[in-house]
UniProtKB/TrEMBL annotation:
Signal peptide as annotated in the record: 1-22
Lineage of source species: Bacteria, Pseudomonadati, Pseudomonadota, Alphaproteobacteria, Hyphomicrobiales
UniProt cross-references to Pfam families, sorted A to Z: DUF1236
Listed name of the protein: Glycine zipper
Protein keywords: Signal
Species annotation: Pararhizobium capsulatum DSM 1112
Keyword Signal: yes
InterPro entries assigned: DUF1236
Amino acid sequence: MKTKIMILAAATLGMTSTAALAQEGTVTGAAGGAVTGAIVGGPVGAAVGGVVGAIAGTAVDPPPQRVVTYVQQQPVAQSVVVQQPVAIGKPIPSDVVLAPVPEDNRYAYAIVNNQRVIVDPQTHTVVQVIQ
């Protein structure tokens, strides 16, 4: 029985290895979810836990402190007003102009509704809101 769990957990991690190269948080979430699921629910729990963990792992992956510090130190530009609330994990409108973060091209920022927001420049998804 333990061998089956180990094989299934390894297979689950193997299936996510391609996505893992794209997002570090996915691997951490998938691995943790698969292990927890295997302990609680056996092989089926490992598969379900891996999927749930991957989703949770990609939802919350805060930027490095150097990115946050860079954004905090930039002069305040004109704020863009959007009707929707700004929240982590939610996209901002694609017409909002983003400023790149030179230290890490995985992130960009904008001033939206008088808040500095760090976003994924490819998806416009909010990664962090700086108060």
